[in-house]
Design brief:
Helices cover about 35% and strands about 25% of the residues. The chain is of the alpha+beta class. The strands form 2 sheets. Strands 2-1-3-4 form a 4-stranded antiparallel β-sheet, with helices on one face. The longest helix is centred in the last third of the chain and has 14 residues, at about 115-130.
């Protein structure tokens, strides 16, 4: 049986007087794909933000690779998200001032990778995701599908162990 990579137990979170998460639990092993299903407003996006360490729960446990995210500092959680997680947000959240290739390159630049490594990885994903004609364009000039493929490329360019995708096929 594969070792658990990401887990959470008894997560609770409330906004004002509205309970968004109550006793949420999950365990994910390396290589496993998991889908979170629920009606609109049921807390799916909130759950992803909590298990990825973007937001902290009111109570419960979140662990990644044997370490508690809740015991990490903000800096440690940010470093974890940068190096080992990838994100495809519900609405893409591309940087509007950057081109497609610049958006894809962002995680590698933040990680201090060489220009050669960045160029190679970005070119490979642009080719594989059929974004060749879009590389020099800004997000506002792209179709919904092109924006979504750019967001997916940015999420996976650095080879994360976990990709959090919030409605990745919405476009």
């Amino acid at each position: 049986m594969a070792e658990t990579l990401l887990s959470c137990y008894d997560l609770s979170l409330a906004y004002a007087e509205r309970q968004v998460l109550a006793g949420a639990e999950m365990a994910v092993s390396l290589g496993e794909s998991v889908a979170i299903l629920g009606v609109s407003g049921s807390g799916k996006s909130t759950f992803l933000r909590v298990v990825s360490g973007i937001e902290l729960p009111d109570s419960g446990v979140v662990s990644f690779d044997g370490r508690s995210l809740l015991k990490m500092s903000d800096v440690e959680r940010s470093a974890l998200r940068l190096s080992r997680f990838g994100f495809v947000f519900q609405f893409g959240d591309l940087v509007p001032e950057l081109t497609v290739e610049e958006n894809i390159a962002l995680p590698l630049e933040f990680l201090g990778r060489s220009r050669r490594e960045i160029r190679s990885a970005v070119d490979d994903l642009i080719d594989r995701l059929r974004l060749e004609g879009c590389a020099k364009r800004r997000p506002h000039t792209l179709s919904g599908g092109e924006r979504q493929r750019t967001a997916v490329a940015r999420a996976v360019v650095h080879g994360p162990q976990v990709v959090f995708a919030d409605e990745p096929t919405g476009s």
